[in-house]
Design a protein that fits this description.
The chain is of the alpha+beta class. Helices cover about 35% and strands about 25% of the residues. The strands form two sheets. Strands 1-2-3-4-7-9-8 form a seven-stranded mixed beta sheet. Strands 5-6 form a two-stranded antiparallel ribbon. It starts with a helix and ends with a helix.
Length: about 220
């Protein structure tokens, strides 16, 4: 089971236990799995994964990750998931289990930095969570957010890995152009915002480490 596999990344927590709690979904191919952390018999939900196993040839497989807790607290003890090595390892695990053209939906309201950056018009790939997904091989990422409220659930990122080398090259070209244009159009006032500064650093790293490398290969 994929969810049990990803549960293992929390096994080295010295003062906490980890377990999964599974519920049936809305239809036979769907299930909801909570990853819970516990201390002295007190269990708290870290996050929930909804897995749709697909219905070939009509519907592809997808995961949705939601109800993410950036911080869990017990009496005199706390576990920080946000910006931790466990957060990074968890998304690495999820990425390993999803095949190209299978979707990942990730609620980002637990991460203020990503939400604020998107509100400021930062390209999704240069946001904190967007960059994590990008670095795990998700080259197509869309921000699903409607200010008017016409949507189901919280704001989320939809991410997908490409299935062919040509698709990867074409998508990287689009990413590089988007980020380059965004950087060129920044104003002096953007340099005073902490969320913008971290996003700018990520954008420059993408250009230098990914875009330049691809341009060299193409030449």
């Amino acid at each position: 089971m994929i969810i049990v596999y990803c549960e293992k990344i929390f096994k080295d927590l010295k003062e906490l236990e980890v377990r999964t709690f599974e519920r049936k979904g809305r239809f036979i191919e769907e299930r909801n799995v909570e990853i819970q952390l516990g201390k002295n018999g007190e269990w708290k939900t870290l996050l929930v994964i909804k897995e749709f196993q697909g219905r070939p040839p009509y519907y592809r497989r997808w995961f949705e990750i939601f109800n993410i807790s950036p911080l869990l607290k017990w009496n005199g003890f706390g576990f920080i998931f946000l910006k931790s090595e466990y957060e990074e390892r968890f998304y690495e695990c999820i990425a390993e289990q999803l095949k190209p053209n299978e979707w990942l939906y990730l609620e980002y309201d637990y991460d203020e930095e990503t939400a604020k950056a998107l509100d400021l018009g930062v390209p999704v790939y240069a946001t904190r969570l967007g960059y994590i997904l990008f670095s795990k091989g998700f080259l197509w990422i869309k921000n699903w957010y409607y200010p008017e409220g016409f949507m189901e659930g919280s704001a989320k990122l939809q991410a997908e890995k490409q299935s062919s080398e040509d698709q990867k090259i074409n998508q990287m070209d689009k990413i590089c152009k988007e980020i380059k244009n965004w950087l060129l159009n920044l104003g002096s006032h953007d340099m005073k915002n902490k969320y913008m500064l971290s996003s700018i650093a990520r954008a420059k790293h993408i250009l230098q480490s990914y875009c330049e490398s691809q341009r060299t290969k193409n030449n």
